[in-house]
Design goal:
The complex is a heterodimer. Chain A is mainly α. Chain A has 10 helices and 2 strands; from the N terminus they run H-E-E-H-H-H-H-H-H-H-H-H. In chain A, strand 1 and strand 2 form a beta hairpin. Chain B is mainly alpha-helical. Classes of the chains: A mainly alpha, B mainly alpha. At the A-B interface, helix 1 and helix 7 of A face helix 2 of B.
């Protein structure tokens, strides 16, 4: 609605036409439903309550188990987001840009999978803070606030001043929502995938490192 | 009344003491809220530096809409934070201990848990709101009175909404999703309600009165509302409060303790 009002005054803003901006905003809603991890936040509670031991004694990989649980969660949330977008399309008939090239869809798929994994591993690493402190919710709140703004869910990040945009690309956040959506719309180069790839490796290694450190220090009795 | 105030003071004291027991969390939560506020402030400023106007409002006026929304939302959270902790009272049966006490239960379950973190934020929002209110010329002292009255009306509507949520929680133990819905809906008022096209705008001014809550204070301040709209807004606030209290009484009649 905000962008609708903006485009009532002008045809293009920050290099975006109404068609591209509406496509971005609706697209990023679906992308954020896919790449935002929901269940990894439970891990902090499991560590604090000690119930994480229930997973450790099972003959399965903890990371793979969490990934599978997250994927199952997506089966519920993604269709809901699609239905939500469907209603918006029916009621408001926004002008949309639909990519026609198969390559765009392939790059989009690749980018969204990597975005989901980066978000998963970083969120997991945040939950592992619980191995050392009970104050786990405040850092997560900061993370959520930062992601809600600099990951591109409110607007395409390339409308920001160039130095700020370039600085943001060094962080992992644009690869959650912005990169998949902008690549699909042809508004960002495929080279953003390299950033996704680098952050995927870093976030995985970081989560694994914190997990290995934390699990060595973890002790619990009772239940 | 004196007894009620001393109880409220006591509840608030315990609530603040509980919060500041974790100083690092207090710092990080306040920091997160400041970051969120600053980033959104920056975004509006950046956007309007290009467009100059948003649905007929200048940058200063648009920022005032956002600040007024933040102020009302912040005060509502500060006052009604205890509603967020209501569910365990119902599901564990400890609500019975509150209901049997010789004071009104709202004293504990509605306003009994003042959030010190929001006090900091409300001061920040208030400071900026006053600054931008002063930036707008051609307003009289009557405008300030109208603005203040609309703020009070917005808080009455927020109180009514929270009482409805408590009533819903009493009969269904459903609190968290209702609160999320309330937060999401009120967030629609973070910018002037005029950005929404019809019939959404009418819905937001009547059925779900986010417009009355969040946009009318600034519109009233700018002299954009008729006397009829003023009367309608305050009547709406009173009616919603009455409806919410009726809902609470009805829910109490149906309530059966969950605990054992």
């Amino acid at each position: 609605m905000l962008w609708n009002s903006v485009f009532a005054q002008t045809d293009t803003i920050f290099g975006y036409s109404k068609q591209y901006m509406m496509s971005y905003i609706l697209g990023v809603t679906v992308v954020s439903a896919i790449t935002t991890t929901m269940r990894t936040t439970d891990v902090a509670g499991d560590v604090l309550k000690g119930t994480v031991v229930n997973y450790l004694i099972k003959p399965i990989s903890f990371f793979k188990y969490l990934l599978a649980r997250e994927a199952a969660d997506k089966l519920i949330h993604v269709p809901l987001a699609v239905i939500e977008i469907g209603f918006l399309l029916i009621f408001f008939h926004p002008p949309l840009y639909i990519p026609t090239s198969i390559t765009s869809y392939f790059l989009f798929f690749l980018s969204i999978v990597m975005g989901w994994c980066i978000s998963f591993f970083i969120s997991l690493a945040l939950s592992f803070i619980a191995f050392w402190t009970t104050e786990v919710w405040a850092p997560r709140f900061i993370f959520t606030v930062v992601v809600s703004f600099v990951a591109g869910s409110l607007f395409p990040l390339d409308i920001l001043p160039k130095p700020l945009y370039a600085a943001l690309l060094i962080t992992p956040f644009p690869y959650f929502f912005y990169a998949p959506t902008a690549i699909a719309l042809g508004k960002a180069p495929w080279t953003l995938l390299m950033g996704s790839g680098i952050w995927l490796i870093i976030s995985f290694m970081l989560a694994r490192f914190i997990w290995q450190k934390g699990i060595k220090e973890f002790s619990f009795y009772g239940i | 009344m004196k007894h009620t105030l001393s109880l409220l003071k006591l509840f608030s004291f315990y609530s603040i003491k509980k919060t500041i027991a974790q100083p690092l969390s207090v710092f990080l939560f306040v920091l997160a809220k400041v970051i969120r506020f600053a980033l959104f402030f920056f975004f509006i400023h950046y956007l309007l530096s290009k467009t100059k106007m948003l649905v007929g409002y200048t940058l200063t006026e648009t920022l005032l809409f956002f600040l007024t929304f933040s102020l009302i939302d912040g005060i509502a959270q500060l006052l009604f934070r205890e509603v967020y902790r209501f569910r365990p009272l119902v599901t564990e049966g400890t609500l019975d201990l509150v209901l049997t006490k010789p004071y009104h239960p709202f004293l504990q379950i509605l306003i009994g848990g003042i959030d010190i973190l929001d006090v900091v934020m409300v001061v920040i929002y208030g400071f900026f709101a006053v600054y931008f209110l002063r930036q707008i010329d051609s307003v009289s002292s009557l405008s300030i009175v109208v603005y203040m009255l609309f703020l009070v009306n917005a808080l009455i509507i927020a109180a009514a909404a929270h009482i409805c949520i408590l009533a819903l929680g009493l009969i269904s133990s459903e609190i968290d999703n209702a609160l999320s819905l309330f937060r999401d809906v009120t967030r629609l008022g973070s910018l002037p309600i005029d950005i929404y096209s019809e019939p959404v705008r009418t819905i937001l001014n009547t059925v779900v009165p986010v417009g009355v809550m969040m946009s009318f204070p600034v519109k009233g301040y700018l002299g954009l509302l008729s006397i009829q709209t003023l009367v309608y807004s305050f009547l709406l606030g009173a009616v919603l409060l009455w409806v919410s209290l009726s809902m609470w009484r009805g829910a109490l009649m149906r309530y059966q303790s969950w605990g054992g």
